[in-house]
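Consider today's protein:

***
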Amino acid sequence: MRASTRNSLIHYTINSTRMKTNKSFTKRVKVTKNGKVVARKIGQNHFNARQTGRQRLRRKRTQLLNFTKRMSRRFLPGMGAKPLVETESK
C-alpha cells in the first residue's frame, strides 16, 4: 500500500468516528458553567389566557434536564454537558 493511500485511510477513520452535535436540540437548551443542561418548560407558546397567574409564572421558569451519559454523547458531544449524576455529586 502506498503512503498516500495509507494516510488518507487514517485520516478518514479519525474523522468518521466524530459525532455531530444535534443542532435543533442545542437551540432549545443551554449548558451552564458547571455543565448542567437547562431548558424552557413546555406549554407556554399560546393559549395562556385561560391559565391562572400561578401556572403562567411556573412555566416561565427554566427546567433542569436529567441526562444520561448516552444522551449527552448523542445530542451534545463536545458541548461540555455532564450527566446530572456527576453534577450533583460535587
Notes: Residues 3-16 form the longest helix (14 residues).
